[in-house]
């Protein structure tokens, strides 16, 4: 059979076109497997609206004017107040894996301890002296770690086929490179050995944190939503779906949230282990419960919105301790009742949209993340301003507290002020006194005192007008004279000068006694004279003896 030229050209052209398409598809796949150097701005979801023919397609919703570079800036922001102590210490198992079963760097002997079993498999913390990693096996295959690397029993061809699929899925997941996705470091290259090796999350899972008393703040909840939302945007852009987002599959390493345990792998491993299929009750999306909703999601190309529902459900659980399982998503009264408990109005609105029973009405992961970012920036700005206000209020509070304390101690302060005033008055008087003493010692130098005392001593036995004048002429205070005497002694005055001052002191004492007597016994001149004569002599004698004793010590 011969072909004409036109037919031959047509066939050759078709073959060339098919080859070009295949090469392009392969190129696109290789490109999709590469880590993002810059976040993708364009949403990958198909637009929901009705065409002229009445056919439904996904609708494009307006997005906040936020670049994903801004969102990316929060990928490695840490949560606050996390509980420490996750892990195990008794490394009782020592598996050994030859090269070929695992990749280079993971072969050889490891020391392992069991972190726990749950869901589809068991997790072990293992170290080879250089690094730590988490080895996971399905339930029923614990002997791979606890006894040897060989499979416990020969596997059927059906199981081997499943494990080959696991390896294929693991290869795809291991190529994911995002700060908020737990890294799949390696997986078994043996088609009969189910083994996955993950990076170690030193703060455990979100479920472990909550079970051990961690209480996330609004800031933490928004940050978890942004970091996981950005991780979902990343995997959705590569055609992947997680499908099982709940606190047990959300890990924390170094304070940073990381998404792990993709359902594509977990479903396969669950089928060969003693465990339930993924989709934890309480966190399931409606399409995981109702097949008709799943069918519509597939027809509209929005299957990945299952992750948006589960993430929103997880955030609701973190905020209120309650979730809306897929089977209850159509109960409008229940949904409204639970959402009304969310304290932030904007967050309540976006959670309501993300928890819509119809996948096509939910926002994409990118849209959801951007709106959460907007709420986060407003909230953290408000918190920062409140903290500044709190700081200012604390300062004002301290001042008020001090004033209250002053008020409570008002009486004490008044007393102290009174005492201070009295001390100041005393100090002022003392200064004036020292000025007078200085006048006695420095200006007068005792001459005036000597002259007056000499005249007075001759006439003091008789109370006459002359004596009174002499007494009045002595204008120094007795205390000043005593202080002048003491200070004069310190300054080295002669004994004669000190004797004169001492005599003046005695004279002032007799004058003081006279004034006292006048007030007490009346003004009879005879009695006064007699008393003055006696007391003056007595006072001079006593003071003279005391002062002379001081002088001649």
Mind explaining what this structure looks like?
- This protein is an alpha+beta fold.
- The protein has a domain of 136 residues.
- Helix content is 55%, strand content 8%.
- The chain contains 18 helices and eleven strands.
- The strands form four sheets. It has a five-stranded antiparallel β-sheet with strand order 5-6-7-9-8. A two-stranded antiparallel ribbon has the order 1-2. A two-stranded antiparallel sheet has the order 3-4.
- A hairpin with an 8-residue loop joins strand 8 and strand 9.
- Helix 6 packs antiparallel against helix 9.
- The chain is elongated and about 135 Å long.
- The chain starts with a helix and ends with a helix.
Count of beta strands = 11
Q: In terms of structural class, how would the helical and strand content be classed? A: alpha+beta
User: Which regions have little confidence, pLDDT < 50, spanning 5+ residues?
Assistant: 5-12, 15-53, 443-447, 456-464
Radius of gyration: 50 Å
| Average of per-residue pLDDT values | 74
Approximate strand percentage: 5-15%
**So what's the overall shape?**
elongated
Major beta sheet, strand line-up:
5-6-7-9-8
């Amino acid at each position: 059979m011969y072909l004409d030229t036109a037919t031959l050209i047509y066939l050759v052209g078709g073959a060339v076109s098919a080859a070009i398409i295949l090469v392009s598809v392969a190129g696109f796949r290789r490109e999709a497997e590469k880590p993002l150097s810059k976040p993708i701005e364009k949403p990958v979801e198909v637009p929901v609206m009705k065409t002229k023919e009445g056919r439904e397609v996904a609708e494009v919703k307006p997005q906040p004017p936020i670049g994903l570079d801004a969102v990316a800036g929060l990928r490695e922001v840490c949560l606050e107040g996390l509980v420490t102590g996750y892990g195990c210490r008794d490394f009782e198992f020592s598996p050994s894996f030859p090269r070929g079963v695992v990749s280079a760097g993971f072969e050889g002997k490891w020391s392992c301890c069991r972190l726990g079993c749950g869901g589809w498999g068991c997790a072990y913390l293992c170290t080879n002296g250089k690094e730590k990693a988490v080895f996971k096996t399905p339930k029923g295959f614990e002997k791979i770690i606890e006894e040897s690397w060989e499979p416990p029993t020969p596997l059927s061809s059906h199981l081997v086929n499943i494990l080959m699929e696991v390896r294929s899925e693991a290869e795809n997941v291991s190529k994911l490179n995002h700060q908020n996705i737990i890294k799949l470091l390696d997986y078994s290259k043996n088609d009969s050995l189910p083994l996955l090796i993950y990076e170690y999350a030193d703060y455990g899972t979100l479920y472990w944190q909550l079970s051990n008393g961690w209480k996330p703040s609004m800031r933490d909840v928004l940050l978890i939503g942004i970091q996981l939302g950005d991780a979902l945007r990343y995997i959705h852009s590569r055609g992947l779906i997680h499908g099982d987002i709940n606190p047990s599959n959300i890990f924390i390493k170094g304070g940073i949230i990381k998404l792990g345990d993709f359902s594509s792998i977990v479903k396969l491993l669950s089928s060969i282990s003693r465990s339930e299929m993924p989709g934890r009750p309480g966190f399931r999306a409606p399409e995981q419960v109702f097949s008709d909703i799943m069918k519509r999601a597939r027809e509209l190309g929005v299957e990945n919105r299952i992750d948006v529902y589960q993430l929103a459900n997880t955030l609701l659980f973190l905020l209120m301790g309650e979730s809306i399982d897929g089977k209850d998503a159509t109960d409008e009264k229940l949904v409204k009742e639970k959402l009304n408990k969310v304290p932030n109005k904007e967050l309540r609105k976006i959670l309501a949209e993300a928890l819509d029973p119809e996948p096509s009405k939910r926002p994409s992961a990118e849209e959801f993340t951007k709106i959460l970012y907007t709420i986060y920036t407003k909230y953290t700005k408000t918190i920062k301003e409140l903290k500044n206000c709190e700081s200012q209020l604390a300062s004002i509070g301290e001042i008020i507290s001090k004033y209250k304390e002053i008020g409570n101690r008002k009486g004490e302060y008044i007393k102290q002020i009174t005492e201070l005033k009295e001390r100041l008055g005393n100090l002022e008087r003392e200064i004036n006194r020292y000025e007078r003493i200085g006048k006695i010692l420095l200006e007068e130098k005792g001459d005036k005192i000597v002259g007056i005392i000499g005249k007075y001593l001759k006439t003091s036995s008789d109370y006459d007008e002359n004596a009174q004048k002499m007494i009045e002429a002595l204008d120094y205070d007795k205390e000043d004279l005593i202080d002048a005497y003491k200070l004069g002694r310190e300054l080295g005055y002669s004994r004669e000068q000190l004797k004169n001052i001492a005599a003046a002191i005695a004279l002032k004492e007799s004058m003081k006694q006279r004034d006292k007597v006048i007030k007490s016994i009346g003004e009879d001149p005879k009695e006064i004279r007699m008393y003055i004569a006696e007391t003056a002599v007595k006072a001079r004698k006593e003071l003279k003896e005391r002062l002379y004793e001081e002088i001649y010590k």
